[in-house]
Amino acid sequence: MAVFKSMLSASDARPRAQFFSGNSRINFIRDALSLPTWLALGAFAQAGLCLVIPTQLAVLPAFLYLATSLIDLLLVSQSVRANHRMDGVVVGKASAQIPGSTTPASYPLLAIKLAARSNHPLGTAHPHLIKIGGFFQQMIRHLDDNSQDYNYLGAQTYLGVERATANEIMVMVYFRDYAGLHKFAHTAEVHKTAWRYWNKEVMKDPVAGRQFAIMHETLQVPARSWESIYINYHPTGIGATTFSVQTNSEDGIARTQWANPLVDASRGVLSTSKGRMAASKGDEDLGYKTFE
């Protein structure tokens, strides 16, 4: 079988994990306040404008914002302007496979879900949660900078939606194996510092300590027991991780590059779920036409 070839170009420098996307902090701040609170803040700001400028002018900012948003929506929907929500989308049917492999899901995989939540009235504005958030940043940055030491692949951030506000903040981190995770947990100083802070500062706080929560779940998946499919999707989950690969330059010198695992899954063995776990040749009758 041919070697799986990434649909995205490899890079000479390791890309930062999706965890560091610029909008994460804004989303956490937005989640800290309820919709009525945001509306009240907007009404307060509008009332303030009415006190300092004529009423006719005070409504202009809101009017201009809504008008430009509507015009932009119309232009994008009519393909006059580019739809930036499509930026980074991998068009077609793709699956995440280990770069350089020839058999689907040929290596084991480990994922750990790390999460934190504030039940304190101050929510994410409490110093404890600000400190915890900083530790998350430091730990993922350390993994990014030392990925080969820990067999680390990448990390993404997610926000729970089961509550109106103060939802769970989750980070999903991927490793090649449990040994890499274990090494990080027990040797990385940044992790040990974060754990000491939780035990000595948060848990021993008699007032606020019980109002903060952290958790993790570790999922160790053997080879040929995991699969993925993405249709017209931006890189996410395993599809947003990064693998080191050895390539040869034109002068024959070997060098390390960083490859994304997304490969074409529109046909062949990767076209079905069983095929993507090396449990079939991808030729079983699904009862419907596959994506082409």
From TrEMBL:
Annotated organism of origin: Sporothrix stenoceras
Protein's name according to its UniProt entry: ABM domain-containing protein
Any Pfam family hit: Monooxy_af470-like
Domain of life: Eukaryota
InterPro entries found in the cross-reference section: Monooxy_af470 (IPR025444)
